[in-house]
Amino acid sequence: MDTFPTVFPEIETPRLLLTEIIQEHLDDLFRLFGDARVTQYYNIRTFRKTEDRQIYLDWFRDRFHSRQGIRWGIRIKGEEGIAGTIGYNNFTPRHRANIGYDLCSDHWNRGYMSEALTAVMKYGFETLAINRIEAEVMPGNTASETLLQKNGFRKEGLLREWMYWDDRHFDMCMYSCLRRDSSYF
Questions:
Q1: Tag placement on the chain: N or C end, fewer CB within 10 Å?
Q2: pLDDT band at 183; cut points 50, 70, 90
Q3: What are the beta bridge partners of residue 76?
Q4: What's the rounded Cα separation, in Å, for the pair 184 and 79?
Q5: What Rg value do the Cα atoms of the chain yield, rounded?
Q6: Gap between the Cα atoms of 22 and 72, Å rounded
Q7: How many CA atoms lie within 13 A of 156 on its CB side?
Q8: CB distance 97 to 134 below 8 Å
């Protein structure tokens, strides 16, 4: 049974609307990924040129249309545009998925990402039939580690020099949450 949606799904939470990232969000993407605090633990260079934003929008769209991943824009109700993104960079139905997320720094520490993460995990387990959700975190990114642990993820260990980016190798901490561990939904 194919669990991948044919139409981009929207998810609503009490304070957020998780929506498709579209052309109208290009300036929001530039504001998000143009902030070095947001990209500090990310395997992308901080945006310096407006052309950078289209590359990521196209990548998000291509992942969805090729049925390999799904990335939502995080819209805070009552505000214009998106304040971040969250979603599955890749997934295998009935098996596992890799999750990623980011949020504009002026919205940190308000619980928005935890709210979005809970909704996306529920969608993954219930609708996409994923059994295991994984997240890789660069050592030192304590905010992300805290977020994951708060939302039921367990640290599995350190993947030594697991990521290769910008001509360097990086260690990554592996976190996971299994469907059977997600009983708090």
A1: N
A2: low
A3: 16
A4: 29
A5: 16
A6: 10
A7: 15
A8: yes
* Four-residue CA torsion sign, 138, 49, 63, 32: positive
Q: What is the pLDDT of residue 1?
A: 66
Using an 8 Å Cβ cutoff, are 95 and 131 in contact?
yes
Contact by Cβ (8 Å): 177, 132: yes
Cβ-contact 156, 145 below 8 angstroms: no
* CA separation for the pair 15, 66 (Å, rounded): 30
**Residue 32 CB coordination number (10 Å):** 26
Is the Cβ–Cβ distance between 3 and 93 less than 8 Å?
Answer: yes
The C-alpha atoms of residue 41 and residue 35 are separated, in whole angstroms, by: 12
- Cα 155 to Cα 172: distance, rounded to the nearest angstrom: 11
| Alpha-carbon gap, residue 49 to 146, rounded angstroms | 32
* Both structure tokens of 170: 């990086």
